[in-house]
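Summary for the funding panel

The consortium committed to producing paired sequence-structure records for every protein in the target list. Below we show the first two records in order, beginning with the earlier of the two.
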Amino acid sequence: MGAHMRVRWLPSLLFGLAVGASPSSGQAPAPDSTPFGGLAYRMVGPFWGGRASRVAGVAGDPATYYAATASGGVWKTTNGGAAWSPIFDDQPVSSIGSIAVAAANPNVVYVGSGEANIRGNVAAGAGIFKSTDAGKTWTRLEAGRPDRHDGRPSRDPDVAFAAVLGHAFGPNPERGVYRTEDGGAESWVGSSS
């Protein structure tokens, strides 16, 4: 008999041995509930509905992360994901498509509102937001504020790039790639279609 045949009858043999080893009283032994008695279930991740669009961590800090959600705003953890706090609830939009933390200054966080993943039901954005205090307060960058973007700061926290979709279905003047060199305070320049 080949190895394949032995594998097929092995579970039957083990079951037969287990049944044959039951007590003679006819009652099954009570299951042991102690192996997992000290464990408790817990949620790992932010308590929001929907899906995470993007996540960003802080370079050199393995416990701090931000999560941008498609319909739940921005969340932050400072303990490696054991607890998450909403940090974007006071803003006029909850659909977030991107988030980026400046490598040179982790207090500078850029958020692009509006869904980044195009599908049949997308939520519009309200432009680009920036925090200079690690998400405690936010400023809406009015200059050249496109509806949706996927932002990435460079090594210089005042230089950031935005790949902008604009209105999802059809051509529009907002669509294109933009760059700011002043932290979005005065201008976003770029190529739009």
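The next record, for a separate protein in the list, is shown here:
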Amino acid sequence: MNKLSTNQWIYIALFSGFLISIAISISLESATGIACGLTFWDVLVEMMKILPFAFILIALIEVWVSDKVIIKHLGKNSGYMAYFWVLLLAGISVGGIFVGLPLAQSLQKKGASLSVIFVYLGFVGVARIPMTIFEISFMGLPFTFARLAVAISSFLVIGIIMGKYLSKRNYTLKQDI
């Protein structure tokens, strides 16, 4: 049986403290504490609806998509077409960043460049098709296209700069999340 690391004990202590504070707030009938507990519960339920499918998707990518394909299309020498592929991947993603982070780690393990991963993470936050359709219905087409143009170009530039900067320093994403 593996022993828990110091960081894991810290996470357990913080989470336990959070749950205890919610329980105390509820017992004292604190409106803020009850609202915090309800919000936590809502987020937890939403994550439980999304995460099993996300993990299945990531497992399928791990098994079905070879490292060679990822390196060819999303690796260091893939060119600008890689950014189109991650925009497409982010666009069809559901679950937002909940799915984006584990998928980014999987892509990095398979050989995707840091620039592509950073751009993907930005795109998954702002360019998902379901979110865009919802936004068009409330904000209108001109606003949505303007927001997408600014957001996509910004994340593209920032992701490329960050990726090149960190690649020169031999940075890799943490593997033991």
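Regarding this second record: The chain has a mean pLDDT of 89. The longest helix spans residues 31-64.
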